[in-house]
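Regression test case RT-17, inverse folding.

Input:
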């Protein structure tokens, strides 16, 4: 029997329920009555389907909470405790099975079957559950390459590939075990093997290398096994708007950047089959896409082009190099290999061209995958757990209102705030203004698993009354910037209490012209003029920040990029005085920083002075007696609070202990990812042994340590394994 509030309340005698309802009505305040009236209007405005759905249930629940009598309010507390007990009893049964147990129970079940080398991390984005679940099957196939590959996937939860290097040695073959494909000379006519040369899928025979594979110096030897892990994943975008260069030319990326297209990794078919290129997230080569078009191109595959809502047929698509065509002065005049009769796709540059023999297409959309390391910034990944719960009403754009500004204006007239939810992956060409009523919260967010692009021509002004809050979630913002002014349009003080930016990208650097909004130079993307306000930035990518002294800026698991390490990433409005108090955690900040009070933990600050720089040092805190700097990298000479386990530790190690990145260019797949040659003092220098910087919470060193701890149990005798990164 379910002892919910309705059941418990129904068990009471009718006399008590009638008196409780009468007392509840008598105790309702004028404010509660006004709120009930608003909620009732919202309920009546919903369709019959929505009234019976979650939205209607939420409204009716809030109406009931506002007019409960004292007896029903007491039973609601008892109901909550009964629900906790019911859930606990159900979970105790579930905890007996590895498939359904709570995360804390995974190591205990692992102990029952003798699983070794488990390193549990509370807030890690990966679990050891698959390792425990598959331990018995591992042992049945112990010593094979396939079990090592599955072990690597389960332990690290990255895509993996295992290479047995003895098969790739250029040696005299044993006549009873012939390998016809293993030729001592590379076949220059075998285009497929040459395409994957010097990759984990290289099939060309090599001479022996006697250096140890475990040290990552040697590979090709009889006892060597190579384990390749892909740190960069394939991130989807479905039915997104491509960037239009002209009537016939487009880029897959909505901001006009050249972006390599990645394949959608297919699951490995059987446990005895080692991964192929189609099973891991890799950029798609032109030749491979041309020869295996049916594998990669099409609806629900790695990429597809839509015109007028219908996919372009694969037979009408050609694959070619759409590089820049330049004149004698080096100026770009167009693309070469422009098609005449078929749609052309360049997967390496992420470019798309339509044939000149046909009319210019209308309503072009693309679905594709791009590479990135983590769920950070605007992207088409699930963010539902970060949405503000219980905040009503929810106005959807463009379903309920045609523009974001129209939806915000609707909330402006309500004293309770609400949500503006933007649907789809389209462009929204507007520069909205946000005004939050006193004591209310307004959330502007992308719908779950959507990534709309907000193209602004200027500043998004955000103002509010006392104790008001504004939240921004899931948008990619180009062109303009977020501005928190000192006063609103009516010269009233901006009393906004907080601004929360989560899973957003405020594009760093200059932006290209989109629709009616022209190209914009690199400007600060977040400008805060109001003191006594808290700015929270989480899992986002931002350009430069300007914030006045008196404000507080909290940055976690994010990237702040001034494009050049000699530019100013964080300071006051003038860029020359100390800005707001900065609390940075697990973040990478590229550029010079001048703050009033600095608290930094597990961060990387990348800054450098020019020859004629007016700044004395790249990173400065005005008040050195306050704040904290721990387990972070700061440029040599930085003026910060007394550092604790920061790098470089001494002047002698300043040259060797520097962060090395795969790329510092926004839009690249390896953007702000630590390079494979990054020193261990940085890549394992955080307070918990993880890497410093924006990708600290991926716990990459711990994943590798987990795998190394398990390998000895499943490798054949005398076999040595080396762990490499495929990306």
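Golden output:
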């Amino acid at each position: 029997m379910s002892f919910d509030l309705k059941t418990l309340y129904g068990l009471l005698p009718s006399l008590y329920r009638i008196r409780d309802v009468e007392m509840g009505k008598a105790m309702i305040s004028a404010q509660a009555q006004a709120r009930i009236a608003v909620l009732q209007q919202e309920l009546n405005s919903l369709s019959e389907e929505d009234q019976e759905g979650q939205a209607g249930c939420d409204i009716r629940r809030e109406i009931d909470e506002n007019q409960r009598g004292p007896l029903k309010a007491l039973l609601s507390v008892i109901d909550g405790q009964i629900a906790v007990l019911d859930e606990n009893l159900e979970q105790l049964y579930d905890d007996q099975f590895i498939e359904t147990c709570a995360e804390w129970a995974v190591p205990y079940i692992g102990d029952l079957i003798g699983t070794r080398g488990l390193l549990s991390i509370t807030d890690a984005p990966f679990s050891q559950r698959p390792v425990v679940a598959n331990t018995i099957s591992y042992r049945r196939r112990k010593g094979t390459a396939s079990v090592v590959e599955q072990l690597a996937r389960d332990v690290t939860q990255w895509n993996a590939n295992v290479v047995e290097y003895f098969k790739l040695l250029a040696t005299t073959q044993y006549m009873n075990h012939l390998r016809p494909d293993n030729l001592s000379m590379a076949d220059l006519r075998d285009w497929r093997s040459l395409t994957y040369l010097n990759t984990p899928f290289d099939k060309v025979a090599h001479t022996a290398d006697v250096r140890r594979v475990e040290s990552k110096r040697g590979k090709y030897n009889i006892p060597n096994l190579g384990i390749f892990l892909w740190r960069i994943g394939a991130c989807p975008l479905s039915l997104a708007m491509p960037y239009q260069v002209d009537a016939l030319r487009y880029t897959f990326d909505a901001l006009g950047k050249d972006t390599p297209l990645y394949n959608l990794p297919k699951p490995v078919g059987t446990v005895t089959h080692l991964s192929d290129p189609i099973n891991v997230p890799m950029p798609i080569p032109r030749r491979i896409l041309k020869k295996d078009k049916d594998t990669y191109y099409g609806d629900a595959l790695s990429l597809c082009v839509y015109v007028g809502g219908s996919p372009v047929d694969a037979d009408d698509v050609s694959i070619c190099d759409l590089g820049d065509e330049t004149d004698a002065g080096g100026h770009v005049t167009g693309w070469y290999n422009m098609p005449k009769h078929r749609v052309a796709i360049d997967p390496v540059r992420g470019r798309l061209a339509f044939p000149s023999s046909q009319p210019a297409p209308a309503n072009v959309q693309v679905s594709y995958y791009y590479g990135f390391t983590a769920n950070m910034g605007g992207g088409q990944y699930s963010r539902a757990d970060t949405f503000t719960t219980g905040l009503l009403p929810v106005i959807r754009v463009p379903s309920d209102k045609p523009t974001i500004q129209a939806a915000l204006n609707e909330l402006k007239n309500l004293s309770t705030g609400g949500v503006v939810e933007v649907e789809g992956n389209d462009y929204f060409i507007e520069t909205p203004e946000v005004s939050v009523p006193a004591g209310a919260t307004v959330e502007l967010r992308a719908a779950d698993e959507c990534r709309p692009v907000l193209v602004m021509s200027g500043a998004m002004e955000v103002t509010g009354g006392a104790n008001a809050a504004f939240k921004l979630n899931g948008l990619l913002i180009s062109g303009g910037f977020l501005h928190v002014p000192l006063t609103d349009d009516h010269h009233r003080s901006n009393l906004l209490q907080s601004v929360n930016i989560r899973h957003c990208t405020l594009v760093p650097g200059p932006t290209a012209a989109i629709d009616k909004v022209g190209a914009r130079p690199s400007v600060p993307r977040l400008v805060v003029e109001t003191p006594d306000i808290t700015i929270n930035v989480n899992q986002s990518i931002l350009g430069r920040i300007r914030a006045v002294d008196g404000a507080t800026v909290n940055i976690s698991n994010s990237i702040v990029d001034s494009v050049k390490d000699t530019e100013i990433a964080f300071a006051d409005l003038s860029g020359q005085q100390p800005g707001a108090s900065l609390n940075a955690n697990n973040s990478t900040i590229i550029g010079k920083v001048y703050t009033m009070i600095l608290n930094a933990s597990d961060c990387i600050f990348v800054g450098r002075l020019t020859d004629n720089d007016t700044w004395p040092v790249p990173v400065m805190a005005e008040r050195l007696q306050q704040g904290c700097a721990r387990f972070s990298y700061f440029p040599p000479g930085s003026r910060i609070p007394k550092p604790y386990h920061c790098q470089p530790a001494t002047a002698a190690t300043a040259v060797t202990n520097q962060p090395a990145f795969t790329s510092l260019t926004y839009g690249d797949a390896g953007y702000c990812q630590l390079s494979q040659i990054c020193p261990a003092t940085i890549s394992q220098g955080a307070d918990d042994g993880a890497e410093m910087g924006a990708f600290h919470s991926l716990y990459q060193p711990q994943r590798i340590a987990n795998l190394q701890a398990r390998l000895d149990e499943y490798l054949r005798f005398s076999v040595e394994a080396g762990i490499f990164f495929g990306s």
